[in-house]
Design a protein that fits this description.
Blueprint (H helix, E strand, L loop, with lengths): L6 H6 L3 H11 L7 H4 L6 H13 L3 E7 L2 E6 L4 H32 L1
Antiparallel strand pairs: 1-2
């Protein structure tokens, strides 16, 4: 069974940086530890390089510390992050609308 690729990653490229950004966008109301971000299918070494870079650019922000762990979330005040979230939302909505139309057409053919 092949893994279905995200429509967002189809458009922006399936790179570790974009996988991490997609993870933050999908959970935009939550904050994450680095270990949580391993679910984005990115290596530990890559995360340790990417997270400080994204934080420096202001796309993600540190939200709090729990023990030795620092938590991060997407910076919804950042223009770049806002544009990425708009693109993500638009692509998902477009895909859902397209699937809905094809489902309705298939149902019409059956009935």
């Amino acid at each position: 069974m092949t893994k279905e690729t995200s429509i967002f990653l189809d458009y922006v490229g399936d790179t570790p940086r974009m996988r991490v950004l997609q993870y933050f966008i999908e959970g935009r109301e939550f904050d994450y530890m680095l270990t949580d971000l391993l679910n984005a299918q990115v290596s530990w070494g890559t995360l340790n390089t990417l997270i400080p870079l994204l934080a420096k650019k202001g796309v993600i922000i540190k939200t709090r510390k729990i023990g030795r762990a620092t938590l991060y979330k997407i910076n919804q005040e950042s223009f770049v992050a806002q544009q990425l979230m708009k693109l993500y939302d638009h692509l998902i909505l477009e895909q859902l609308t397209s699937r809905e139309k094809s489902t309705k057409e298939a149902l019409k053919q059956i009935v």
